[in-house]
Amino acid sequence: MEAELAALASSGATALVGLMVSESWDRAKLRLARFFAQHGRPGPEGATDEDLQSARDELRSARQADDTGAAADIEAEWRQRLRRALREDPAAARELRSLLTELAHEAGVEWDASPHAEISGGVQNGPVFQNTQIHGGIVFQAQPPAPLDAKPDQVPARTSRFVNRTEELLALDGFFTALADGSPHIDIGALDGLPGVGKTAMACRWAEKSRNLFPDGQIYVDFAELRGTGGGADVFEAVGMCLRALGVADAYLPQSLTERTQLFRSHSAGRRILLVLDDVDQPAQVRALVPKGPGSAVLVTSSSRLGELAAVEGARLMSLEPLDAAGGLKLLAARCGQQAVDDEPAAAEQLVGLCAGLPVALQVAAARLMSTRRLTMAALAAELADETGRLAALSLRGEHSVSAVFGTSYAQLPPDAARLYRLLGWVPGRTFDTGTAAVAAGLPPATAQDLLDVLDDASLLEATPDGRYRMHGLVRLHARECAADEESPAARRQLIGRVTTHYLALTAFADRAVRADRLRIAELSEVIGGAPDPFASPSAPRPLAWLEAERPNILAVLREAAQQGLHTPVWQLSEAFTVLFLHRRHLRDWMESLELGAASAAAAMAPAAEGRLRSLLSRPLMDLGEYDRARTELDSAVACAEIADHTALRASVQEFLGRYLDHADPSRAAAAYQRSLELNESAGERRGAAIAAYFLGRAQDRDGDSAAALTTLRHAHAGLTACSDLRMAARVTAATGEVHDHLGDTEEAVRALREAAVALRAQEATHYEAQALVLLAGIAQRPGNDRSTARADLTRALEIYEAGGSPLADALRERLRDPEDLS
What is the chain's mean pLDDT, rounded? Predict the structure, then answer.
């Protein structure tokens, strides 16, 4: 029932704003005012005809100014009012549906009147894993990376109405002078201020209203999500995020920060873009992300004043102060109604002072006023004034205390909602879905959803546009203080255990959905055995897209669970999580997750798991050029595999050792691959044996034994085809073509490479397709060979490289410019 009411409020708000700009508005306004008078609560929720007319005037002004953000704010406000009216009187749903259907029909406004209409992008309760009481709760369809020619649009949508800061927004306009005068320099603006003062909201609002100034898009990086690994990993990943936003595929991302920064400058040079860098704490995080395109800009938020950024980079700094009395009153009026402020001006001004002028505190106070019948501003101000003297303060640099605001709202929550609130303060990660909240509190998803709505109404949570939730940092601190005071000493570890097992189950399902026959050490029948696969339904998100979207949260869970000594689920989650990094090369994150997993496996005395994770760890280490560390991890992996006496693991470790030797000592690589092949065959691992044969064949060809390589690669192809690994089989076919070329059999080389290119395109393995096409063009351009297909092959390869942002594209363009070379 709750989901239906929320859906009706959402679709009803959309219909309502449609009616506001229709010719039938005057009649609709009177009937809607009567509905709110009968079913809404007294005060701002009553929505008089004056309120409705004022909203209509604001909406028309916003549309005339092409201010999509302000228009969205108005719709969000009425969605909230409708939801509260329906919660007060659920029986009013039928009347509202009938009323809007009639009014929309008269006005020619479309809306979905279905009683089961769902909120777009809203929460969908996932499957319940009955045997372990793990709740799924996968809530959004993650989108694939944008192609190179797509315009990034990443700045988060605001989910509450933005008011005030008019002067500050105008000052920001003045920061970015290059936008107005067309000069080639890049402007940098930085907002600093106390937590909760509204820096992120203001940055997002300025980005929204300035959208037309950046025709090539807006990129957003939240450094709070990247923080925690140290050593510059946050900057490394941030530049990678920006390159992906500009269409660079993972296969072409450089593995050094210097090269990534250079590539970012190249890809941004022809674009006019805005970068919003949120929650920065070091000037170096900004320097690497200054784009090169004339008219581009960087807008930074930070809790610290970045003086060095101003001195070195010429950034303009603005300290965002708490709202003054006038600004705070304006925010209260926006949330509670102007009449409520006018009725109690002194009490309203006192509330602004008690909330320290911080928007987050004022929103919580306003939510309390709107949700509690007969609570006046004077009564709330008196309550807060008393609580300020008694509650332990959340000190904001010794200047302000807003603990009383959160504390009094918390005290008014029903006991089950209060318990969920304080437990959510312990949930790792920046955002969470209904399923995660349910697991954290040990509740059914439907019950958790009802309680999340209560917290959202109290402004203690913020619902995000994709149907998830987040807590403001100050609210999270208060929730954690409440949990520490009221929960048992063991409660936090138990919660982290439940959440870790929840993510383990979902990640394990995603891992198996990508490739079922991969080597795994973890035996997870107690976690996922007999449970429905949440990725099996047609409407489910794609496994890799879900893992990509959840990546910051899974890393946060791994860190917290490791600190809590939950060693077994940590190494199990680390092993399952690695499937993401085999396809999306977030090397620093991969390295961190494997380091946490290997250390936990060692602590749990699980040598097979430790050997598996340390051998996997060699992959990102080698990609990052840390070969000495990679060899150390491989030596440990070899020892662990021998201790575990696990034949398939020993085979896998030998394969990883061979790949290390390919770089460090190529003459010994073939022996490692041969040993891996033999061990895989002994263990009955047909796919593992075929992959080892592929690497062995390539090593044999490199060592000059091309005839043996041909035999080995044919064996690999047969094994991979039998395992239905068509993507890897096509790579073997391409390698076979190279071997035929080395043997002087040009006709057979061309046939195999052409077959591989076709197969790789069908498997969407375009990076490898391009390699095969470039080899084909190279063969065609040799003296005496047929050049008729060379231009088409290079053109297709160029198309792939351009779409993926590869630096190899420039060389292909040069080759295509030389008519003699292709004729």
Answer: 84
Span between the terminal Cα atoms of the chain, in Å:
71
**pTM of the model as a whole:** 0.80
Residue 657: what are its φ and ψ, rounded to 5°? -65, -40
Whether the CB-CB separation of 781 and 821 falls below 8 Å is answered with: yes
Condensed to tens digits (0 to 9), the pLDDT of residues 727-739 reads: 999 999 999 999 9
Cα dihedral: 217, 222, 223, 227 (round 10): -140
List of the chain residues with pLDDT < 70: 1-7, 40-47, 68-69, 110-150, 158-161, 163, 177-184, 228-233, 312, 373, 387-401, 819-823
Give whole-number Cα distances, 7 to 224, 370, 423, in Å: 32, 21, 27
Are 735 and 700 spatial neighbours (Cβ–Cβ below 8 Å)?
Answer: no
Task: Return the closest-CA partner of residue 760 out of 792, 795, 728.
Answer: 728
Q: Which residues contact 311 (CB under 8 A, 6 or more apart)?
A: none
Do 334 and 213 meet the contact criterion of CB atoms below 8 Å apart? no
Six-digit token string for 170: 């105008």
Q: CA dihedral defined by 538, 543, 545, 549, rounded to 10 degrees?
A: 120
Distance between CA atoms of 77 and 418, rounded to whole angstroms?
25
- Residue holding tokens 């791994």? 558
Report the percent of the chain where pLDDT is more than 70: 87
SS (H, E, C) 138-181: CCCCCCCCCCCCCCCECCCCCCCCCCCCHHHHHHHHHHCCHHHH
Give pLDDT tens digits for 800-814.
988 888 888 888 888
Amino acid at 710: L
